[in-house]
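Structure ticket #2291
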Amino acid sequence: MRLAIGAVRPFSLPTVQHVSSVRCCVVSKRVKLGTKWTEYQGCKNWEGLLEPLDENLRAEILRYGKFVQAAYNAFDFDPTSPSYATCRLSKHNLLPLSGLDNAGYLTTKNLHATSGIQMPGWVDRAPSWFSKQSSWIGYVAVTEDEREIKRLGRRDVVIAYRGTVTCLEWLENMRSMLTHLPDSTSDCGPMVESGFWSLYTSSTPTGRSLCEEVREEVGRILEKYKGEPISITVTGHSLGAALAVLTAYDIRTCFRQSPLVTVISFGGPRVGNQSFKSHLEQQGSKVLRIVNTHDVITKVPGIVLEDDVAEIRECQQGNAVPSWIRERLKETRWAYADVGRELRVSTRDSPFLIGHISNVATCHELDVYLQLVNGFATCPFKATARRELLNWIPTQASFSLREKARV
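Resolution: structure written out below.
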């Protein structure tokens, strides 16, 4: 069964004047990374940092999660508003009013995703929000504070994406068959999910594609800071996680001499086939996927041959799957491959969330992901987790997480 990839808005979105009061996640101690920054960006594929989770890496994951939350906080969710699906904050105020006033970054570019779906004529009579073709999807921010640059060991460029919101974005998510990339020269070449690729590359007569916006801004930044140590970190949740992987692939394809490109994704769906995975790894892009065991969105679309073969073998009590079946599966446009390294967390590990395991929306929420990374990705259970949980849960919470935490 195909499930749509959506970003359930984390609780109720606060108004602009209340955004700064919401603690996006637990504040982590900022440690000087120095010359080890490349390891935390994945140059060694995070070997020795995931089991157990390194505290500095935990802090970095939470920090990048805040940038994704800022993309949600700055978005106009109100379909009755004339500015629906746009950024309701200026570039200057986007980070400060979204809980990142001391981040040391400056927003330099707003990014927009456009659907390539051609809607029927009757849609012209529908409300404008229904056929919103292009919408604000995220932003680019660059480290400007010298103290933060010194702490990080380099100048960092963040590209942050929100998840699915508009109707056409939901429809694009349904287009889950794999499609060949333009530079693919054979049937065995890299393929990616049709809807994700459409949102990344489609444009309108009056607006450029997300792909073009990213390339232009990355090119400008690399030229401006030529000669400096620099990193590019692409982060996103749900649909944004898929777009983050495509963005990393595109940057490394277009800028052969680009710096280290790292993806930190939360609750991301599958993006491409085995060939796409291989090309991504050969390019040198590094991907760290944070996956909640109980989040069904991370298990779609299509199938992953390695996992399915293992399950079939177990059912057949060790009998190998015939090679011709595997080859036929590879020829289909439903055979996906998970990319990068995985940091697996579990709703079951939290005594405050275990009652919500069956709630698909809750298990997929970004806030839940960040709280699991902060408090529950280690053993033993952090003694301060309950107090920290209550500190950052917004009072506008749409379900009983706050009440559960008090029990």
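Closing remark: The chain has one domain: 16-406.
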